[in-house]
Design goal:
The chain is an alpha/beta fold and 513 residues long. 36% of the residues lie in helices and 21% in strands. The strands form six sheets. It has a seven-stranded mixed sheet with strand order 15-16-17-14-13-19-20, with helices on both faces. The longest helix is centred in the first third of the chain and has 20 residues. The termini are far apart.
Amino acid sequence: MVSRQIVSVIGGKDAEAAGTPYTSVNPARLDEAVAEVRLADAATFAAACRSAAEAQREWARVPAPVRGRVIASIGRLVEENAATLAALVTREIGKPYAEALGEVREIIDTCDFFLGEGRRLYGQTVPSEMPDKQLFTFRVPVGVAAVITAGNFPVAVPSWYLVPALLCGNAVVWKPAEYAAASAHALYRLFAAAGLPDGVLNIVFADGEQTYAGLDRALAEGTVHKVGFTGSSEVGRRIGELCGRHLQSPCLELGGKNPMVIMPDADLDLAVEGALFSGFGTAGQRCTSLGTAIVHTDVHDEFVRRFAAAVAEAKIGDPRDKVLYGPLLDRRFAERFEEYLTWIQPHHTVVTSPIGRITADNPRGGFTGENGLYYHPVIVDGVRPVDRLFTEETFGPIVGVTTFRTLEEAIELANLPGYGLSSSIYTTDPRAAFRFREGVGAGMVSVNNSTSGAEAHLPFGGNGRSGNGSRQSGMWVLDQFTRWQAMNWDYSGRLQKAQMDVAEIVPDLGFRL
């Protein structure tokens, strides 16, 4: 199969083919190239931001309801191309086709939600404290948004940024993950086909260091006014520090160590189903993947037994088939996952076997890995709060298990790693559910559901090591891509000074019945 030839697109034109070559490969078949990409340098990224700044002024003048109709067109284009786009995602990052199709559906849902927001970018008319004066508030676009996204959700998560940013009248420079370049380029083409003016959406392929240097330059030049980043907490911290030097607050959606609390009254079969999906779906390569199952001592043994049995029965293999998960995303993630396996200590109990890469010498049943980045699922029981497996994000198919006796102890364990993205509790007691919600530091809480699964009209985002409190999705993301502007209009014909020229009605405070 011939691989695609891809370059950055700036101002509606393909960038020069010069640049560092990069090959995106199919992680299910490492000898299959999906795309040949030319990676841009920092100067190219900064130039894209300048181009976006020029285009943004005219785009902001387009009435918001008209911009909403463009978003509607994007949704319809994605819907018409859903199967093709999902198949490309499966081929490029190894995500099972059913999940890839669900990811594409999320773009459509996001467009369906925001197409109407073009008619609901409401401000307010506010009463003044003085006569013959009116006060107003308006939402105005921030300007240019630089959006940097990971490749585990190569089309859905970018849409959480691109759709509202464009709707609000901003221009965007989007830097996707190199290893998901073909999927990103395909999504860019669908956006462009909706009629976006040249330069309003630009896509730049670059590595991390060149992107950081280009972003630094663009922030200094004043051509970037909002940064959106999805990725690791480590890189998010660097981006947050860079933006802070320029008095900007980025939208950071970072990693997670997401807890699932299993209460003694939990439906264990349902809990196992949720743990299996959130722990091992997408090969555990979601920011919302289950990190640690925190299980009450009364049901610990039975939960672990059922969980291990479910994992043993799960099918892992070619992502074009009906499987729980396929390969890891890219060689860099496979190397990191092998490091995580070294964190298993003598006091741990690995209740699944074997572990490591699936090969002819280390097969999973009759499956030998077929020259892909396939890894065995791992459940590690006996994890302690001081263990790295408990405190650090492990991006891959590994889940820790620990125990608790009281709900207060479970909440403390859930918060201990310092992440705060997603969380879950399995219980039939509404009091326990609401006490958990009140106590947990996560931005998202599920009751009798997995830690994974977002809907387009709810806020998505985390706290602590998982982000800076910014939210994506739903009406809440509008605060990331607009700024409030206040206006006062005095038509009295004289200068009225606030807090000074205000009529006062004097009460008789000494009055008594």
